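In the present case, backbone shapes were mapped to integers, as reproduced here:
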Amino acid sequence: MSSTKSILDLGYTFNSEGQLRKIGEDGQPSNESFEFNISSDHQECQANYEVLGAAVTDHIYHLLETELNLIRLPVPKGSTEKNGTFIFVSPEFDKQDVLLVLIHGSGAVRAGQWARSLIINDCLDTGTQIPYIKKAQAKGYGIIVLNSNDNFRGDNKISHSSSAEEHANYVWKTYIKPTKAASILIVAHSYGGILTVLLADKEKKEFEKRVKAIAFTDSVHGYSGVKISKYLKQVSKNWISSTSPLDTPMKTPDFDITRVSAGHSKHEMTSCKCIDSVFKFFDEKLNES
């Protein structure tokens, strides 16, 4: 649902480097960043943060549409934003040979975000999926951006999106499966890894035929209960949080997907730090197919 206040209403804007800054007296971004501790009352501070977070979510949606020319598609079909949610897709996403699917983690993040805290406290390039979308656009890929944490309207569950799992299943069957893409690529962060392996298990035949590469970023798919298949091991790699240099091989149990370092020790930074390696991996897998 649309926030009642925008980031501008709250006195913030993003500067030319994509950093959230308070608006100065001259109407331009100042050097003053967001301050969580506005009082000694933690609940008041958190409430203020959530208001800003909602405004940031709306702003990212706006950027996806205006700067990246993505289009909203309803979940479920025929719903409105009053009783349903939406995903974002690139124009003619269903006609491209290669389709990139982006799946964020759990929590407060919504479509287009990897980590809301990074968007607020660091910058757009680290906290959003925008760099991935731009790289995919440059390669001519179709793009689908899931919105798997948007599950309620008020107290009411959204039909076909009452949980992240239900959302992913619906988007796969309704929007991904009917596309012409012979090659599907997936980037799945954190809990998005669980959604991915569950889909791979549930849609096994179609998934193994068309999904050519999966880049997990600090995925927690080990909690899914799904046994990792030989196929998943062949097409996947998991960039995990580590102090080791990017792409350093990490200790991987025999039953799991190959782990390499994402080049950063913070969980929420993994997706942005390994982006070049992810697209190199995709190129390699597409060349194999």
The longest helix spans residues 42-66. The two ends are 41 Å apart (CA to CA).
